[in-house]
Amino acid sequence: MEDYHKPDQQTVQALRNIANRLRINSIKATTAVGNGHPTSCCSVAEIMSVLFFHTMKYRPDDHKNPNNDRFILSKGHAAPVLYSVWVEIGFLKESELMSMCQVDSTLEGHPTPKQQFVDVATGSLGQGLGVACGMAYTAKYFDKSSYRVYCLLGDGEMSEGAVWEAMAFASYYQLDNLLAILDINRLGQSDPAPLQHHVEKYQRRCEAFGWHAIIVDGHSVEELCKAMSQPRHQPTAIIAKTIKGKGIPVAEDKMGWHGKVLSKDMAESVMRDIQSRILNSNKRMYPASPIEDAPPVSLRNVRMPSAPNYKPGEKIATCKAYGMAVAKLGRYNERVVAMDVDTKNFTCSEIFKNEHPNRFIECYSAEQNMVSVATGCAARELNIVFASGLATFFTRAYDQLRMAAISDSNINLCGSHCGLSDGEDGPAHMGLEDMAIFRAIPTATIFYPSDAVSTEKAVELAANTKGVCYIRTTRPETAIIYNSNEDFHVGQAKVVCQNKEDQVTVIGAGMTLHEALAAAEQLKKERIHIRVIDPFTIKPLDAKTIIDHVRSTRGRVITVEDHYYEGGLGEAVCSAIVNEPGFTFQRLAVAHVPRSGKMSDLFKIYGIDRDSIAQLVRKMLSSSANAK
Amino acid sequence: QCHIHFGILPKENKKCHFLVCSYPSTLKGYHKPDEKTLQALKDIANKLRIHSIKETCASNSGHPTSCCSAAELMSVLFFHTMRYKANDPRNPSNDRFILSKGHAAPILYAAWAEAGFIKESELLNLRKIDSDLEGHPTPKLAFVDVATGSLGQGLGAACGMAYTGKYFDKASYRVYCMLGDGECSEGSVWEAMAFASYYKLDNLVAILDVNRLGQSEAAPLQHNMDTYKERCKAFGFNTYVVDGHDVEELCKALWHAEQTKGKPTAIVAKTFKGKGLKGIEDQDNWHGKPMPKDRAEELINDLLSQIQSPNKPLHPQLPNEDVALADLTPIRLLTAPEYKIGDKMSTRKAYGVALKKMGDASPRVVAMDGDTKNSTFSDIFKKAHPDRFIECFIAEQNMVSVAIGCATRDRTVSFASTFAAFFARAYDHIRMAAISQSNVNLVGSHCGVSIGEDGPSQMALEDLAMFRAIPTCTVFYPSDGVSTERAVELAANTKGICFIRTSRPDTAVIYDAGEKFEVGKAKVVRQSDKDQVTIIGAGVTLHEALAAHDQLAKEGVNIRVIDPFTIKPLDASTIVANARATGGKVITVEDHYKEGGLGEAVLSALGEEPGIVVHRLAVSRVPRSGKPQELLDMFGISAKSIVAAVRRTFAN
Predict the structure, then answer these.
(1) B27 Cβ contact list (under 8 Å, min separation 6)
(2) Which residues of chain A make contact with B600, given a CB cutoff of 8 A?
(3) Per-residue pLDDT reduced to its tens digit, A167-193
(4) Does residue A165 have an active-site annotation?
(5) Do B134 and A426 touch (CB under 8 A)?
(6) Residue in chain A lying closest to B396 (CA)
(7) Transketolase-like pyrimidine-binding domain location, by residue (chain A) (predicted)?
(8) Which tens digit of pLDDT belongs to each residue from B12-64?
(9) Which of A118, A354, A496, A589 has the most Cβ atoms closer than 10 angstroms to its Cβ?
(10) What ipTM was assigned to the predicted interfaces of this complex?
């Protein structure tokens, strides 16, 4: 502790005063709007004071300065204390704080990036530390800069497994620039947290996960200052024993006060009481300035330098084309990074790893954490992130994906091995609900490329598209159907097969597009012509192209998809064409939990193969003939 | 409490030794198995290896090396430690076994072949389209309680079974769960670990097969046994590190696990991936690869040569028969709902009341929550039936796994609740629950923008999309107290996964206490001969539709209002008939994103009906904080928006 300079008494008192002002503002604001978690704010008042006015280095007038230390409030329900900090700094007006949570305020119930000082939304517990890992990894290995990352967690959220995924990740990658503060205030929402005030158990768990763990009194600014100044060679956890509702006598360490606001009268008397503890001190506290050593980064105009290098008819799996495309994109932009969950030999992201080992992060079997790390790496537009895994295992991270949308994140995800085409591995590994969940993410763009050329274009477009991008890839090899110079756009479908005599439009994607093409060949022999459309993006869907072509095939349309009936391509098309008069619409999709078997057998059994398509086309034509 | 330290010598010496061999209080009762038994266990391990190689060669896919690391573990568990009836795998008194590392399925099938339950010849049909021996275990097989194959989920289900064994069945069966080292990176494993020690599940044993290698590279902790040990101990497990290929050590450690009271046990087994396969053992790039055809025979012969007494049969010990057969009689509410039309209450509160009444009706009903019981109102159940409530704390993945575990073998009818948004956290587990043929009931409160000020992170706007895409799922979306109570009753008796979506705001009771409800049967809540549009809403938006109805009625415009009650299955015929009766004009209104919810369900139902026009009102972007009513207006799903949509419909 040689280099530790104990803060002078004036500073200590000033930090205590700030802590109490944060309490007052948190109470005042929550009482004013009749909503929020004042007791969860009061337990962290000293922690926030020390962090923002003693430990962290940042420019308070330039929130997005790349050299600033980062702060993530993982216990997002303590938002009022974070807003109070920014009132204390002078960035927010007190009056703004007093109208938080209102429909016209950008200070929401839980932090969102509508505020400049928030990088990622929190409020779904246990997600902050994974994001912090992504930021710390970026600082240490990509930016190679001295800014640090601070993450404040509650004790309740320590029950979330995602926290321990992040803990393991941080120590594995020796993120010594990461500091987690655990606010052990004993009480959860409806019960005490399982470990109550057993701070030594928290310490043991953190140490077992490879962290340096220090127990402190979370209401002692001296202890906090000291602990936060310790030199680090590994990620550090400050385990702060605190009292929920500290400063509010009726609520201190009491059950039944989670998420409850004080009545006006009670608030006034409590605030008077806290105010009386603010001792005269003229010392103003200013955060220290950061070291300016972060490199300039631009993510604009990330383009492939050359057209795809595939020949029509050549056979290649779209999952492999994904790996090659991301590797190619990475060749021309230093800020393209990739990660995976120990499936890189399946998703083919190992092609990227082999070419750019320093820009690949192995996240091991921890999908939630991978998505959080991706979100952290992509924050402040510092990296173009491609995170891959088997399509179905993104279900594991659906809460993180939901929050990524609220965070305005631009992460790109690739799910391979979608659908029945995974074959013998059986239903546990088949992604049959991934389109449903990604479609229900408001900021998502869903690419479902059907050959290697369009996969490469999808990767390039995803890199340049805002919001969450999802690319669905397939395991079996399929033929190249597009020319290398074919132009692709988000929301623009391709008509793959067309003829003046077409009688039915069939829409498929991935494997089922190839099945549709095979059905077209089959039907041609019977002089039945069908039009085949590749939607390319499922969201947004090219409603106009679809409607135009369905009209020219007399309103007859069939969708066929390697996905459950609900929420996928079929329902997307249904939504697009619903109010078109005179359309006849039939869908082929997987209706039951499938089983192990050869892909071709499974496609037959679940009715999404070429024969099923051909049969449905014939049926549709004969019933419309009967109708005449 | 005994302190036992097993130590590992450097890697080149693959044999493990006890550093301190003192088992102060418990060693006394331990009888080392005789040499013949030990040899027989070794022989079985090698037979299991041979089966695994043959199975995966026959299917030309699968994970033989992941089987070989676990061969001794499986042999000792199935032929020495576990008590079960080999000819009756689902017997409620049997010890339970969960293969969390589901990709080692071939060795599980091999163990049941050795136990005599499946024919050896059947093993060669692994992964074939007409065989129930799937790539990863599913309950199509009587000896599989829950499907595995999505890693990190087995231990949570095992916790549910162990909790049931200890606290509900109060029986002597024990629960064994085998995990791989790769899956120890999954947070859900540590959620389960924390749960097991918190609830002192001393009838639970987690066996960690630490074979060092993952799928695409080594697992992060490689063979760092001390770190595994420290983590397990820090999470409250009685922990032994053993040589996973030494049957004697395994027998001893598993025996000690059984003597340990008040704590679950972790057996951290140092093993080698591909153990026993020359040139393949502990080598990279063998994950998920069958043995090359030209090498299989040699490898098998090598294993055969180590088998000393091929015909020495070992029989599993039989269980104590101290568990009653599952009671499968339907559970009915003892009294009708006690609400009057016009009473105001939230459906989330009605859920708590209903669940408590179901608990009154049957001791099999159990409930759990993720530290939100005062918000979901499952605390009403807890107060009445504290012994049947499990607080799972803030670990939604584990809660769903525990609920699934509790519901296996029909031991309980389980209801698990939290905010609807947070089931997103457990979607992989819910997906697997469908593959597991689970009958678990999940209840999500605080759906939609109508929760107000807490903001988007707490609002479920994708839950209907999620649950609709679960093939075995029934989705209830009740709109008042009476229908909520009936939804809970129906869910308890409906096979498959049931999801009940409840809302935060107080709304009026609209049904008579005697009203009958059925799965897949909608209610026409308002109708007249002159209705010009059909409005379909649910929960809060049904009440907005009713308000719109009243407002429009004053202007002389009549609209029909339908409550679908279940979103899946959706009552297509009622909807189609009413849509036709109102000139083919339909408006759906939902407190959910536009994708995958009520609107798309209705579109799917009407898909092939000509001449119907559907206008959908739903939330179309990430919402924000605000007062509930303001948000309903802002996102276009309030009475005002419905009235405007009805007027637009006429304008066109």
Answers:
(1) none
(2) 566-567, 571, 574-575
(3) 999 999 999 999 999 999 999 999 999
(4) no
(5) yes
(6) A160
(7) 316-480
(8) 344 444 433 344 455 567 889 999 999 999 999 999 999 999 999 999 999 99
(9) A118
(10) 0.97
